[in-house]
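Record 1 of the preview.
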Amino acid sequence: MAAAASLITENFRFASLFFKSKDVVIFNGLIALGTVASQTAYNVFAFECPCSPGRNYIYGLAVIGVPALAFFLIGVTVNRSTWDLVSDCRLRSCCRVSGAAAFALLGSIIGRAVVAPLTWVVISLLQGQAYTCALSEFVDPSTLVGFSSDQGSDVMATFPCQSSVPKELQVFQAEIERRMKYESQLIGWLLVAGMSLTVFLMLCVKRCSSPLGYQQENYWSQYRASENALFQRTAAVHARLLAAESVKSFFGFVAMEKDEREGLPESQSTGPICSTNWNRVTGVYLYREKGGLPLYSRLNKWATYNKENHPEALDEEMETFT
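->
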């Protein structure tokens, strides 16, 4: 019973890692605004319904689905957690990741990646052009008062294009367009409601499952952002310094710009970092504590164990990712 309780606690701790705070909300908001701008520009400059039976449906679905799929794949690709998971599966064993931890990680990756696709779909549905183009040919003529019931999909498919509609049927165009936009916007608002409810439930899960208080969780978020910024900046300087030493050893001198010299430490040499240490600070991180003190990241954990001269203990712990 105690082991099961410990496992559940660890999985809850892992889940809390992937629900970030305000900085992610702002970032997701910027992604959504960029998607809205892209969707609006597309409808203004590129949207052109073929107004042909069979083609309307394919084109309308492609306008909604293909950009959404592209945005989703881009979101998965640029998410750092994706490559942390790939690194863990390559360096360690994916089968040692518990189901709850894997679900939380994949949920984090997918949750971040679906912001732009869902925004694209919602805006497309609220505007109604793609939906009207895709489904106009399926409107039942018998539901239109005064409309000839012998008209087929060939005629119904022309209604998204005013110039293609027969003159005697143009009086029905406004009604058909209004009906299609009603259906499209209704689906769009239902999708917005579903997204809002999902976000609310995710926030509730985050607050309930987090092992940290609000202040410490905010500190953890600030630590991760600071560590990543300092790590990337220091890595760039380290790489430039190592490259300068390699070039100097080959040519005897280094031709560097003034601004490049200013960013490098003076009278300081460096060497390559071994792959073992790179692997120790790479991958998905499960929040842990050591002697009651928090370990906020793989790098923080590596530094703690390195000070105690116990890197082997770090490797053993990294192998048990549950």
